[in-house]
Amino acid sequence: MTADEIDAPAKMVEPPTVLQRYYEVHPTYRLILRWALMVTLTAVAFHRSIASLVEVTRNDSIGGYVWTVPTAAVLVASAIARRNRTELPIHDRQTDIIVGIIGLGLALLIQGVLLPRYALYFYLLRLDLVAMWLFVVASAVVLFGLRPVIRFSWVWAMLLLVFSLPYYLAVISLGGGKVAAGAATLLIAGLGAGIAGGPSYRRGALASAAAWAVGFAILAVVAIFLPTVPMRVYQQIPALSAICVVGLAMFFLSRRGKPKRVLERKVEPLAAKQVWAGVPLVTAAALVLATFPLPISPNAAIFERPSGYPLVSGTPPVAPPGWMTSAAITRTPVNRLYGPDAVLVRQRMTADVGNPRWDKMGSPRTVVVDSTVSQRPFSLGTYPSRVLYGLTSARISEIREVDLGMGVIGSLISVVDDQLLVTWNSMQFNWGDEDLAQRVTIFAVDNHDPDAPFPQPTQNLFPTLRTLITLLFRGNEVLDQRTPSFKDADMLSQFGRALVAAQSGPAP
Fold it and tell me: CB count, 10 Å around CB of 200?
Protein backbone atom coordinates (compact mmCIF):
# COMPACT_ATOMS: atom_id res chain seq x y z
CA MET A 1 0.00 0.00 0.00
CA THR A 2 1.40 3.34 -1.00
CA ALA A 3 1.68 6.36 1.25
CA ASP A 4 -0.97 8.19 -0.81
CA GLU A 5 -3.42 5.38 -0.26
CA ILE A 6 -2.74 5.45 3.46
CA ASP A 7 -3.21 9.22 3.69
CA ALA A 8 -6.40 9.25 1.55
CA PRO A 9 -9.46 9.91 3.69
CA ALA A 10 -11.94 7.09 3.93
CA LYS A 11 -15.01 7.59 1.77
CA MET A 12 -18.14 8.25 3.77
CA VAL A 13 -21.19 6.14 2.90
CA GLU A 14 -24.30 8.35 3.00
CA PRO A 15 -27.33 6.84 4.74
CA PRO A 16 -30.38 6.19 2.54
CA THR A 17 -33.00 8.93 2.38
CA VAL A 18 -36.59 8.49 3.46
CA LEU A 19 -37.72 8.15 -0.16
CA GLN A 20 -35.10 5.50 -0.84
CA ARG A 21 -36.23 3.58 2.20
CA TYR A 22 -39.84 3.89 1.09
CA TYR A 23 -39.13 2.47 -2.38
CA GLU A 24 -37.27 -0.45 -0.80
CA VAL A 25 -40.40 -1.46 1.11
CA HIS A 26 -42.34 -4.44 -0.26
CA PRO A 27 -45.10 -3.41 -2.73
CA THR A 28 -47.78 -4.82 -0.43
CA TYR A 29 -46.85 -2.49 2.43
CA ARG A 30 -46.50 0.47 0.08
CA LEU A 31 -49.98 -0.32 -1.21
CA ILE A 32 -51.32 -0.33 2.35
CA LEU A 33 -49.61 2.99 3.12
CA ARG A 34 -51.16 4.69 0.10
CA TRP A 35 -54.62 3.36 0.90
CA ALA A 36 -54.25 4.44 4.53
CA LEU A 37 -53.34 7.95 3.38
CA MET A 38 -56.31 8.10 1.00
CA VAL A 39 -58.79 6.81 3.60
CA THR A 40 -57.48 9.27 6.19
CA LEU A 41 -57.76 12.24 3.82
CA THR A 42 -61.27 11.16 2.80
CA ALA A 43 -62.33 10.98 6.45
CA VAL A 44 -60.92 14.46 7.03
CA ALA A 45 -62.50 15.98 3.93
CA PHE A 46 -65.96 14.48 4.47
CA HIS A 47 -66.19 14.10 8.23
CA ARG A 48 -69.51 15.96 8.26
CA SER A 49 -70.96 13.65 5.61
CA ILE A 50 -69.87 10.56 7.55
CA ALA A 51 -71.43 11.92 10.74
CA SER A 52 -74.62 12.66 8.79
CA LEU A 53 -74.71 9.08 7.48
CA VAL A 54 -74.40 7.78 11.03
CA GLU A 55 -77.33 9.96 12.05
CA VAL A 56 -79.41 8.80 9.09
CA THR A 57 -78.74 5.14 9.90
CA ARG A 58 -79.43 5.63 13.60
CA ASN A 59 -82.83 7.11 12.74
CA ASP A 60 -83.73 4.00 10.69
CA SER A 61 -83.97 5.90 7.41
CA ILE A 62 -83.71 4.15 4.06
CA GLY A 63 -80.68 6.33 3.38
CA GLY A 64 -78.72 3.90 5.56
CA TYR A 65 -78.37 1.64 2.52
CA VAL A 66 -75.27 3.66 1.59
CA TRP A 67 -73.09 1.58 3.93
CA THR A 68 -73.87 -1.46 1.78
CA VAL A 69 -72.29 0.09 -1.32
CA PRO A 70 -68.63 0.44 -0.18
CA THR A 71 -68.77 -2.89 1.68
CA ALA A 72 -69.99 -4.67 -1.43
CA ALA A 73 -67.41 -2.81 -3.54
CA VAL A 74 -64.57 -4.06 -1.33
CA LEU A 75 -65.80 -7.64 -1.73
CA VAL A 76 -66.04 -7.22 -5.50
CA ALA A 77 -62.63 -5.54 -5.73
CA SER A 78 -61.03 -8.45 -3.86
CA ALA A 79 -62.37 -10.81 -6.53
CA ILE A 80 -61.00 -8.67 -9.36
CA ALA A 81 -57.62 -8.39 -7.61
CA ARG A 82 -57.22 -12.18 -7.88
CA ARG A 83 -57.13 -11.95 -11.67
CA ASN A 84 -53.85 -11.51 -13.48
CA ARG A 85 -52.91 -7.92 -14.17
CA THR A 86 -53.37 -7.22 -17.87
CA GLU A 87 -52.71 -3.50 -18.25
CA LEU A 88 -49.53 -2.54 -20.08
CA PRO A 89 -46.56 -1.35 -17.98
CA ILE A 90 -46.88 2.14 -19.43
CA HIS A 91 -47.11 5.04 -17.07
CA ASP A 92 -47.50 8.78 -17.58
CA ARG A 93 -47.50 10.86 -14.41
CA GLN A 94 -48.54 14.01 -16.28
CA THR A 95 -51.77 12.33 -17.42
CA ASP A 96 -52.40 11.09 -13.87
CA ILE A 97 -52.00 14.57 -12.41
CA ILE A 98 -54.21 16.19 -15.08
CA VAL A 99 -57.01 13.65 -14.59
CA GLY A 100 -56.64 13.92 -10.82
CA ILE A 101 -56.91 17.71 -10.90
CA ILE A 102 -60.07 17.50 -13.03
CA GLY A 103 -61.66 15.02 -10.61
CA LEU A 104 -60.72 17.01 -7.52
CA GLY A 105 -61.99 20.20 -9.14
CA LEU A 106 -65.35 18.60 -9.87
CA ALA A 107 -65.58 17.41 -6.26
CA LEU A 108 -64.97 20.97 -5.07
CA LEU A 109 -67.61 22.35 -7.45
CA ILE A 110 -70.25 19.85 -6.33
CA GLN A 111 -69.53 20.48 -2.66
CA GLY A 112 -69.33 24.24 -2.99
CA VAL A 113 -71.92 25.03 -5.70
CA LEU A 114 -74.42 22.22 -6.31
CA LEU A 115 -74.87 21.21 -2.68
CA PRO A 116 -76.22 24.64 -1.57
CA ARG A 117 -78.37 24.80 -4.70
CA TYR A 118 -80.07 21.52 -3.76
CA ALA A 119 -80.28 22.24 -0.04
CA LEU A 120 -84.00 21.39 0.09
CA TYR A 121 -83.30 17.97 -1.44
CA PHE A 122 -80.13 17.22 0.52
CA TYR A 123 -81.26 13.90 2.02
CA LEU A 124 -82.95 12.85 -1.22
CA LEU A 125 -79.87 13.31 -3.42
CA ARG A 126 -76.84 13.17 -1.10
CA LEU A 127 -74.65 15.02 -3.58
CA ASP A 128 -71.97 15.25 -0.89
CA LEU A 129 -71.45 11.51 -1.34
CA VAL A 130 -71.04 12.02 -5.09
CA ALA A 131 -68.34 14.59 -4.27
CA MET A 132 -66.74 12.03 -1.95
CA TRP A 133 -66.78 9.46 -4.77
CA LEU A 134 -65.07 11.91 -7.12
CA PHE A 135 -62.47 12.74 -4.48
CA VAL A 136 -61.65 9.07 -3.89
CA VAL A 137 -61.41 8.28 -7.62
CA ALA A 138 -59.22 11.32 -8.32
CA SER A 139 -57.01 10.54 -5.32
CA ALA A 140 -56.60 6.97 -6.52
CA VAL A 141 -55.54 8.20 -9.96
CA VAL A 142 -52.91 10.48 -8.37
CA LEU A 143 -51.62 7.91 -5.87
CA PHE A 144 -51.87 4.71 -7.95
CA GLY A 145 -52.01 5.77 -11.57
CA LEU A 146 -54.74 5.91 -14.19
CA ARG A 147 -54.25 2.41 -15.57
CA PRO A 148 -54.70 0.56 -12.23
CA VAL A 149 -57.82 2.65 -11.59
CA ILE A 150 -59.23 1.72 -15.01
CA ARG A 151 -58.61 -1.94 -14.19
CA PHE A 152 -61.20 -1.60 -11.40
CA SER A 153 -63.50 0.64 -13.46
CA TRP A 154 -66.60 -1.51 -12.81
CA VAL A 155 -66.00 -1.25 -9.07
CA TRP A 156 -65.71 2.53 -9.29
CA ALA A 157 -68.93 2.63 -11.33
CA MET A 158 -70.62 0.48 -8.69
CA LEU A 159 -69.55 2.92 -5.96
CA LEU A 160 -71.51 5.64 -7.75
CA LEU A 161 -74.65 3.98 -6.36
CA VAL A 162 -74.15 6.19 -3.30
CA PHE A 163 -76.14 8.73 -5.35
CA SER A 164 -79.44 8.16 -3.55
CA LEU A 165 -82.16 9.29 -5.96
CA PRO A 166 -82.28 6.11 -8.15
CA TYR A 167 -82.43 3.98 -5.01
CA TYR A 168 -85.31 6.02 -3.56
CA LEU A 169 -87.18 5.79 -6.86
CA ALA A 170 -86.74 2.01 -6.84
CA VAL A 171 -87.97 1.69 -3.24
CA ILE A 172 -91.05 3.82 -3.92
CA SER A 173 -91.78 1.90 -7.14
CA LEU A 174 -91.66 -1.36 -5.17
CA GLY A 175 -94.18 -0.05 -2.65
CA GLY A 176 -92.02 1.42 0.09
CA GLY A 177 -91.33 -0.21 3.44
CA LYS A 178 -88.57 -2.43 4.75
CA VAL A 179 -89.07 -5.28 2.29
CA ALA A 180 -89.02 -2.87 -0.65
CA ALA A 181 -85.84 -1.27 0.71
CA GLY A 182 -84.21 -4.69 1.04
CA ALA A 183 -85.30 -5.72 -2.46
CA ALA A 184 -83.92 -2.50 -3.95
CA THR A 185 -80.60 -3.11 -2.19
CA LEU A 186 -80.39 -6.49 -3.92
CA LEU A 187 -79.76 -4.49 -7.10
CA ILE A 188 -76.36 -3.77 -5.57
CA ALA A 189 -75.83 -7.45 -4.79
CA GLY A 190 -76.80 -8.54 -8.30
CA LEU A 191 -74.52 -5.99 -9.91
CA GLY A 192 -71.63 -6.77 -7.56
CA ALA A 193 -71.88 -10.52 -8.01
CA GLY A 194 -72.02 -10.10 -11.78
CA ILE A 195 -68.85 -8.00 -11.76
CA ALA A 196 -67.04 -10.38 -9.43
CA GLY A 197 -68.15 -13.47 -11.32
CA GLY A 198 -66.62 -12.30 -14.63
CA PRO A 199 -64.62 -11.73 -16.72
CA SER A 200 -66.91 -13.57 -19.17
CA TYR A 201 -70.46 -12.31 -19.62
CA ARG A 202 -71.86 -15.80 -19.11
CA ARG A 203 -70.16 -16.26 -15.75
CA GLY A 204 -71.22 -12.77 -14.72
CA ALA A 205 -74.86 -13.37 -15.63
CA LEU A 206 -74.93 -16.69 -13.75
CA ALA A 207 -73.34 -15.10 -10.68
CA SER A 208 -75.79 -12.21 -10.78
CA ALA A 209 -78.81 -14.55 -11.06
CA ALA A 210 -77.48 -16.66 -8.19
CA ALA A 211 -77.03 -13.56 -6.03
CA TRP A 212 -80.62 -12.52 -6.71
CA ALA A 213 -81.89 -15.97 -5.73
CA VAL A 214 -79.84 -16.15 -2.54
CA GLY A 215 -80.63 -12.55 -1.63
CA PHE A 216 -84.39 -12.92 -2.01
CA ALA A 217 -84.32 -16.16 -0.01
CA ILE A 218 -82.53 -14.45 2.89
CA LEU A 219 -84.81 -11.40 2.58
CA ALA A 220 -87.87 -13.66 2.85
CA VAL A 221 -86.46 -15.29 5.99
CA VAL A 222 -85.81 -11.89 7.58
CA ALA A 223 -89.28 -10.59 6.63
CA ILE A 224 -91.08 -13.66 7.99
CA PHE A 225 -89.12 -14.43 11.16
CA LEU A 226 -87.62 -11.02 12.03
CA PRO A 227 -90.17 -8.44 10.88
CA THR A 228 -89.37 -5.90 13.61
CA VAL A 229 -85.61 -5.63 13.04
CA PRO A 230 -84.28 -2.21 11.94
CA MET A 231 -84.31 -1.11 8.33
CA ARG A 232 -80.53 -1.53 8.00
CA VAL A 233 -80.86 -5.29 8.60
CA TYR A 234 -83.18 -5.60 5.58
CA GLN A 235 -80.78 -3.51 3.51
CA GLN A 236 -77.43 -5.04 4.43
CA ILE A 237 -77.80 -8.67 5.51
CA PRO A 238 -79.49 -10.10 2.34
CA ALA A 239 -77.33 -8.12 -0.10
CA LEU A 240 -73.94 -8.71 1.54
CA SER A 241 -74.75 -12.35 2.35
CA ALA A 242 -75.68 -12.96 -1.29
CA ILE A 243 -72.37 -11.52 -2.53
CA CYS A 244 -70.35 -13.54 0.00
CA VAL A 245 -72.19 -16.84 -0.65
CA VAL A 246 -72.05 -16.54 -4.43
CA GLY A 247 -68.45 -15.30 -4.36
CA LEU A 248 -67.27 -18.23 -2.25
CA ALA A 249 -69.20 -20.68 -4.43
CA MET A 250 -67.62 -19.28 -7.59
CA PHE A 251 -64.18 -19.41 -5.95
CA PHE A 252 -64.42 -23.07 -4.98
CA LEU A 253 -65.97 -24.10 -8.29
CA SER A 254 -63.18 -22.41 -10.25
CA ARG A 255 -60.50 -24.01 -7.99
CA ARG A 256 -61.68 -27.61 -8.11
CA GLY A 257 -58.64 -29.85 -7.87
CA LYS A 258 -56.31 -26.89 -7.38
CA PRO A 259 -54.76 -25.24 -4.31
CA LYS A 260 -57.22 -22.93 -2.55
CA ARG A 261 -55.10 -19.78 -2.29
CA VAL A 262 -56.69 -16.40 -1.75
CA LEU A 263 -54.29 -14.56 -4.09
CA GLU A 264 -52.92 -16.72 -6.88
CA ARG A 265 -50.67 -14.20 -8.51
CA LYS A 266 -47.73 -12.36 -7.00
CA VAL A 267 -48.08 -8.75 -5.98
CA GLU A 268 -46.77 -6.76 -8.92
CA PRO A 269 -44.68 -3.61 -8.40
CA LEU A 270 -46.78 -0.48 -8.16
CA ALA A 271 -47.11 1.26 -11.50
CA ALA A 272 -47.02 4.77 -10.09
CA LYS A 273 -43.72 5.13 -8.27
CA GLN A 274 -43.15 8.86 -8.08
CA VAL A 275 -46.28 9.80 -6.13
CA TRP A 276 -44.88 12.23 -3.61
CA ALA A 277 -45.49 15.20 -5.89
CA GLY A 278 -49.20 14.32 -5.89
CA VAL A 279 -49.58 13.97 -2.13
CA PRO A 280 -49.65 17.76 -1.49
CA LEU A 281 -52.30 18.12 -4.21
CA VAL A 282 -54.62 15.54 -2.65
CA THR A 283 -53.97 16.87 0.86
CA ALA A 284 -54.76 20.46 -0.14
CA ALA A 285 -58.01 19.38 -1.82
CA ALA A 286 -59.01 17.42 1.29
CA LEU A 287 -58.39 20.39 3.56
CA VAL A 288 -60.46 22.70 1.33
CA LEU A 289 -63.32 20.19 1.16
CA ALA A 290 -63.27 19.90 4.95
CA THR A 291 -64.24 23.58 5.22
CA PHE A 292 -67.54 23.23 3.32
CA PRO A 293 -70.52 22.85 5.67
CA LEU A 294 -73.47 20.63 4.84
CA PRO A 295 -76.67 22.52 3.95
CA ILE A 296 -79.31 22.84 6.65
CA SER A 297 -82.59 21.65 5.20
CA PRO A 298 -85.58 23.85 6.02
CA ASN A 299 -87.48 20.65 6.85
CA ALA A 300 -86.01 19.50 10.15
CA ALA A 301 -85.63 15.75 10.27
CA ILE A 302 -85.29 15.47 14.04
CA PHE A 303 -88.12 16.71 16.21
CA GLU A 304 -87.65 17.85 19.77
CA ARG A 305 -91.02 19.59 20.35
CA PRO A 306 -93.62 17.14 21.80
CA SER A 307 -97.02 17.26 20.16
CA GLY A 308 -100.04 18.71 21.90
CA TYR A 309 -101.90 15.40 21.80
CA PRO A 310 -101.14 11.68 21.33
CA LEU A 311 -100.12 11.11 17.72
CA VAL A 312 -102.16 8.42 15.98
CA SER A 313 -101.94 7.80 12.25
CA GLY A 314 -105.14 8.84 10.49
CA THR A 315 -106.41 10.97 13.40
CA PRO A 316 -107.20 14.57 12.35
CA PRO A 317 -106.23 17.56 14.50
CA VAL A 318 -108.91 19.26 16.57
CA ALA A 319 -110.49 22.28 14.86
CA PRO A 320 -109.67 25.51 16.72
CA PRO A 321 -112.40 27.69 18.26
CA GLY A 322 -114.20 29.81 15.65
CA TRP A 323 -113.61 27.25 12.89
CA MET A 324 -115.53 24.16 11.82
CA THR A 325 -114.86 21.22 9.53
CA SER A 326 -116.86 22.09 6.43
CA ALA A 327 -116.32 19.00 4.28
CA ALA A 328 -115.74 15.30 4.59
CA ILE A 329 -112.33 14.36 5.93
CA THR A 330 -110.26 12.51 3.32
CA ARG A 331 -107.36 10.15 3.92
CA THR A 332 -104.68 9.53 1.29
CA PRO A 333 -102.06 6.78 1.81
CA VAL A 334 -98.51 8.13 1.78
CA ASN A 335 -96.86 5.02 3.18
CA ARG A 336 -94.44 4.77 0.27
CA LEU A 337 -92.82 8.00 1.38
CA TYR A 338 -93.37 8.19 5.13
CA GLY A 339 -93.45 4.62 6.37
CA PRO A 340 -96.04 2.01 7.31
CA ASP A 341 -99.62 3.13 8.01
CA ALA A 342 -98.75 6.74 7.09
CA VAL A 343 -101.76 8.59 5.68
CA LEU A 344 -102.33 12.22 4.79
CA VAL A 345 -105.48 13.50 6.51
CA ARG A 346 -107.09 16.44 4.68
CA GLN A 347 -109.59 18.71 6.43
CA ARG A 348 -111.43 21.73 5.04
CA MET A 349 -112.04 24.20 7.84
CA THR A 350 -114.25 27.26 7.43
CA ALA A 351 -114.48 30.22 9.80
CA ASP A 352 -117.76 30.65 11.67
CA VAL A 353 -117.91 34.33 10.75
CA GLY A 354 -116.30 36.44 8.07
CA ASN A 355 -113.50 38.92 8.59
CA PRO A 356 -113.18 41.96 6.29
CA ARG A 357 -109.39 41.85 6.69
CA TRP A 358 -109.31 38.39 5.16
CA ASP A 359 -112.03 38.81 2.52
CA LYS A 360 -113.19 42.13 1.09
CA MET A 361 -116.79 40.86 0.97
CA GLY A 362 -116.61 39.70 4.58
CA SER A 363 -117.26 36.07 3.59
CA PRO A 364 -115.99 33.28 5.88
CA ARG A 365 -112.65 31.99 4.65
CA THR A 366 -111.81 28.32 4.10
CA VAL A 367 -108.41 26.74 4.67
CA VAL A 368 -107.17 23.22 4.07
CA VAL A 369 -105.25 21.42 6.80
CA ASP A 370 -103.10 18.42 5.79
CA SER A 371 -101.54 16.34 8.56
CA THR A 372 -99.35 13.26 8.39
CA VAL A 373 -98.12 11.10 11.26
CA SER A 374 -94.96 9.13 10.48
CA GLN A 375 -93.25 6.34 12.37
CA ARG A 376 -90.07 7.38 10.54
CA PRO A 377 -89.68 11.06 11.39
CA PHE A 378 -86.49 11.32 9.35
CA SER A 379 -88.53 10.68 6.19
CA LEU A 380 -90.37 13.99 6.69
CA GLY A 381 -87.06 15.73 6.01
CA THR A 382 -86.09 13.38 3.20
CA TYR A 383 -89.29 14.06 1.24
CA PRO A 384 -90.20 17.75 1.77
CA SER A 385 -93.60 19.18 0.91
CA ARG A 386 -92.39 20.24 -2.53
CA VAL A 387 -91.94 16.55 -3.34
CA LEU A 388 -95.21 15.42 -1.72
CA TYR A 389 -97.35 17.88 -3.70
CA GLY A 390 -95.40 17.61 -6.96
CA LEU A 391 -94.80 21.35 -7.20
CA THR A 392 -92.75 21.14 -10.39
CA SER A 393 -94.16 24.35 -11.89
CA ALA A 394 -94.42 26.44 -8.73
CA ARG A 395 -92.34 29.43 -7.70
CA ILE A 396 -91.80 29.50 -3.95
CA SER A 397 -90.68 32.35 -1.73
CA GLU A 398 -88.15 32.23 1.06
CA ILE A 399 -89.38 30.90 4.38
CA ARG A 400 -90.66 33.24 7.06
CA GLU A 401 -90.60 31.87 10.57
CA VAL A 402 -93.70 32.52 12.69
CA ASP A 403 -94.05 31.85 16.41
CA LEU A 404 -97.19 29.75 16.86
CA GLY A 405 -96.91 29.54 20.63
CA MET A 406 -96.17 26.60 22.93
CA GLY A 407 -92.64 26.45 21.51
CA VAL A 408 -93.84 25.71 17.96
CA ILE A 409 -92.22 27.59 15.07
CA GLY A 410 -94.14 27.65 11.81
CA SER A 411 -92.72 28.10 8.31
CA LEU A 412 -94.71 30.53 6.15
CA ILE A 413 -94.22 30.61 2.37
CA SER A 414 -95.89 32.21 -0.63
CA VAL A 415 -96.34 30.15 -3.80
CA VAL A 416 -97.27 31.04 -7.37
CA ASP A 417 -98.58 27.84 -8.92
CA ASP A 418 -98.57 28.05 -12.72
CA GLN A 419 -100.32 24.68 -12.95
CA LEU A 420 -103.28 25.48 -10.68
CA LEU A 421 -103.22 29.11 -11.89
CA VAL A 422 -103.52 30.39 -8.31
CA THR A 423 -101.36 32.06 -5.73
CA TRP A 424 -101.46 30.59 -2.29
CA ASN A 425 -99.83 30.90 1.13
CA SER A 426 -98.85 27.97 3.29
CA MET A 427 -97.99 27.51 6.97
CA GLN A 428 -96.20 24.35 8.06
CA PHE A 429 -94.95 23.04 11.40
CA ASN A 430 -93.59 19.76 12.73
CA TRP A 431 -93.68 18.25 16.18
CA GLY A 432 -93.00 14.92 17.82
CA ASP A 433 -89.81 13.04 18.65
CA GLU A 434 -87.36 10.65 17.01
CA ASP A 435 -89.85 7.77 17.13
CA LEU A 436 -93.12 9.40 16.08
CA ALA A 437 -93.72 12.81 14.50
CA GLN A 438 -96.35 14.78 12.66
CA ARG A 439 -96.19 17.38 9.92
CA VAL A 440 -99.10 19.81 9.63
CA THR A 441 -99.51 22.01 6.53
CA ILE A 442 -102.16 24.74 6.25
CA PHE A 443 -103.13 26.15 2.82
CA ALA A 444 -104.98 29.33 1.94
CA VAL A 445 -105.48 30.21 -1.74
CA ASP A 446 -106.22 33.64 -3.16
CA ASN A 447 -109.33 32.22 -4.85
CA HIS A 448 -111.98 32.46 -2.12
CA ASP A 449 -114.66 30.47 -3.96
CA PRO A 450 -115.92 27.27 -2.29
CA ASP A 451 -114.60 25.15 -5.18
CA ALA A 452 -111.16 26.78 -5.25
CA PRO A 453 -108.36 24.34 -6.16
CA PHE A 454 -105.79 23.35 -3.55
CA PRO A 455 -102.51 21.43 -4.04
CA GLN A 456 -103.05 17.66 -4.21
CA PRO A 457 -100.64 15.15 -2.63
CA THR A 458 -98.88 12.51 -4.72
CA GLN A 459 -96.45 9.69 -4.02
CA ASN A 460 -94.93 9.87 -7.48
CA LEU A 461 -91.33 11.11 -7.40
CA PHE A 462 -90.84 11.21 -11.15
CA PRO A 463 -92.31 14.73 -11.61
CA THR A 464 -89.68 15.89 -9.15
CA LEU A 465 -86.99 14.95 -11.68
CA ARG A 466 -88.11 17.87 -13.85
CA THR A 467 -87.56 20.26 -10.96
CA LEU A 468 -84.13 18.80 -10.23
CA ILE A 469 -83.04 19.12 -13.86
CA THR A 470 -84.33 22.70 -13.99
CA LEU A 471 -82.37 23.56 -10.86
CA LEU A 472 -79.24 21.99 -12.33
CA PHE A 473 -79.20 23.94 -15.57
CA ARG A 474 -81.00 27.18 -14.66
CA GLY A 475 -80.40 27.65 -10.94
CA ASN A 476 -82.71 28.38 -8.03
CA GLU A 477 -83.81 31.76 -9.36
CA VAL A 478 -86.26 30.26 -11.88
CA LEU A 479 -88.15 28.48 -9.09
CA ASP A 480 -87.89 31.25 -6.50
CA GLN A 481 -90.47 33.97 -6.02
CA ARG A 482 -88.60 37.25 -5.74
CA THR A 483 -91.63 39.44 -4.93
CA PRO A 484 -93.76 37.23 -2.69
CA SER A 485 -97.30 38.18 -1.74
CA PHE A 486 -98.26 37.18 1.80
CA LYS A 487 -101.92 38.20 1.58
CA ASP A 488 -103.05 35.56 4.06
CA ALA A 489 -100.09 35.75 6.44
CA ASP A 490 -102.17 37.32 9.22
CA MET A 491 -104.98 34.76 8.86
CA LEU A 492 -102.62 31.78 8.74
CA SER A 493 -100.67 33.06 11.75
CA GLN A 494 -103.81 33.45 13.86
CA PHE A 495 -105.25 30.17 12.66
CA GLY A 496 -101.95 28.37 13.28
CA ARG A 497 -101.72 29.67 16.85
CA ALA A 498 -105.33 28.65 17.52
CA LEU A 499 -104.76 25.21 15.97
CA VAL A 500 -101.65 24.56 18.08
CA ALA A 501 -103.46 25.70 21.24
CA ALA A 502 -106.46 23.50 20.45
CA GLN A 503 -104.29 20.39 20.53
CA SER A 504 -103.40 20.85 24.22
CA GLY A 505 -105.94 18.21 25.20
CA PRO A 506 -106.40 14.63 24.00
CA ALA A 507 -107.80 14.25 20.54
CA PRO A 508 -111.41 13.02 20.42
Answer: 9
